[in-house]
Every structure is written in structure tokens, then in C-alpha cells.
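Write out this protein's structure.
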Amino acid sequence: QVQLVESGGGLVQPGGSLRLSCAASGSIFSINAMGWYRQVPGNQRELVATITSGGSTNYADSVKGRFTISRDNAKNTVYLQMNSLKPEDTAVYYCNALIAVLSIKKNYWGQGTQVTVSS
């Protein structure tokens, strides 16, 4: 069984920073792409940032220049450093990873962590 466990969410004032972490554990053979998505109630889940096993990154236009995704392959962990936060960044943030268990690749999701940007 594979689990993704997120941490680091919370309440922050506009202009502030937060760092999200997501650790994968279980019977993992390999991890391909990892990423962060977010969702506001009533809206679809949207991509925030992704990173490949080789370190190539992709960002939503709305977060470019403010958010940085990184990963530690030795720890099976992905991070999201969020700077210059805006109220519109308020959402539940979900970690995602494409993980191979033996020869089967599957998308896994974390449970979500709330990020609230408010004064």
C-alpha cells in the first residue's frame, strides 16, 4: 500500500510564505512525476506545479515567479515553497505522484492540506 502524507498548510497573511511537504511511503518501486494541485469548493482541481524525476518543472501561470517546487528523491518527498501569497491562493492543496509498485504505475493523491491567505 502506498500513502502520500502532506504537511505545512495553515493561515498566513497576504505577502507571506508557506512551505508544503509531501512524503510518499509504502511498497514503492519508483516515483515518476510528482506535483501539487489545489481546489476551491465548487471549482475543479487545478494544477499548481509538477516536477519530473529528473527535476524538470512546470508551473501554472498564476504561480510562476512566486512558487517553487522541488523534490528529494532519497526521501520520496516533494516540496512546494510558496512566497508572496495572495488571497486567491486560498485552497486545499493536494499532492500527487505517479508511483510504480512492482511493474504497475498508478496515480496517488494525498489527503489535502488547507492553505488560507487572509489578513
